[in-house]
């Protein structure tokens, strides 16, 4: 089983150290290197926010509906895949992608209405 990487309190300092060495090696001016490092770390962190917000909304729904905890992983996987695909494609394909992923994941959950409801919670700007 693959261990999923998680974003926690040590992630930012680890990323800052790893990227900081590369940036400092490429930019000789310390002030400019620090400014570039801060901007890079901020951009990296902002990439996690939409997924975390989405998952927190979905967890609230799953708790309220009493969805079995054993299905949360499959539903999370479905939601993240759907969110990622909707962000990469044109709006006219969204319904087809949604229906295709519901069909794909429906064999893995006890009730497909969970997937449909979770898909309705996902919004893309």
Q: How many distinct folded domains?
A: 2
Q: In CATH, what is the class of the largest domain?
A: Mainly Alpha
* Number of DSSP-assigned strands: 0
Q: What is the rounded Rg?
A: 19 Å
Q: What is the CATH topology of the largest domain?
A: Methane Monooxygenase Hydroxylase, Chain G, domain 1
Largest sheet: none
Q: Helical amount among residues, as a percent range?
A: over 70%
Q: Count every helix, treating DSSP H or I runs of 4 or more residues as helices.
A: 6
- What is the chain-wise order of helices and strands? HHHHHH
Structural class: mainly alpha
> How does the overall form come out from the CA principal axes?
elongated
Oligomer: single chain
N/C terminus separation? 34 Å
- Low-pLDDT regions: none
Strand content: under 5%
CATH arch. level architecture of the largest domain: Up-down Bundle
Rounded mean pLDDT score: 86
